[in-house]
Specification:
18% strand, alpha/beta, 8-stranded mixed β-sheet, single chain
């Protein structure tokens, strides 16, 4: 099953493309600049050599990447390009699921969010596309650094949100291929909380008082402890 990643030339998109390719999922890497997407795809495929078998990453325009996706399209653009990118590919999203990983960080301040009037980027995408296109918010809290360092396991759990349970189940099954725990965190309105976790993590990761960086979140069972 081929997936599309729009904004795939950015750090988050590249990291996800590599992780899914290693999991055996072919990736159509989308960009406004198809030539740039092809160049990045070639670099990603080269970087995967030596990591075992993997599916190929193909570089395409955003519109062509959506057309190549069998079912799931991941939106990984900066928030400033969120609505415009969706508008440019909306017609091609019929019978597909949009996975929105975008966080509306405040301009000039990555330690805060500036939520749109709809309440979250996930809700804004759902309003823009209409209820005929299921929108699932996911992967908001995973560090691009971690995604791109393939020698490291993804160090956090993933929360998914959305209004259509069937679509969330499909997205959960896809993300579980990355060998992470995935939890259904409720309807699209829950994205207001999930997306807002990201600037908190950024604040902690750049704090001199915290002895590590690139942290994520984990859901712990009662009585659970680290090894």
């Amino acid at each position: 099953m081929t997936i599309a990643i729009l904004g795939g030339t950015g750090p988050q998109g590249q990291g996800l493309a590599k992780r899914f390719a290693l999991a055996g999922v072919p990736v159509a890497l989308g960009s406004r600049d198809a030539q740039r997407a092809m160049e990045i795809a070639n670099e990603l495929n080269a970087s995967l050599d030596g990591h075992g078998s993997f599916a190929r990453v193909r570089g395409l325009s955003n519109e062509d990447a959506v057309a190549q996706a069998d079912r799931i399209v991941v939106l990984a653009v900066p928030y400033a390009a969120h609505d415009a990118t969706l508008q440019s590919v909306a017609e091609g999203l019929s019978n597909k699921i949009l996975v929105d990983i975008v966080v509306p960080l405040a301009p000039g301040n990555a330690r805060a969010v500036a939520m749109p009037p709809e309440g979250s980027a996930t809700e804004a995408a759902q309003k823009l596309l209409g209820e005929s296109v299921p929108v699932v918010g996911a992967l908001h809290n995973v560090s691009a650094h971690t995604l791109n360092h393939l020698e490291e396991r993804i160090n956090c759990d993933v929360l998914v949100v959305g209004n259509q349970d069937g679509a969330k189940e499909e997205v959960v099954a896809l993300i579980e291929k990355l060998k992470v725990n995935v939890y259904d965190a409720g309807p699209a309105t829950s994205a207001r909380c999930v997306e807002a976790i990201t600037p908190i993590l950024i604040r902690l990761n750049i704090s001199k008082r915290v002895p590590f960086s690139h942290a994520g979140i984990r859901i712990w069972a009662p009585g659970a402890h680290t090894a």
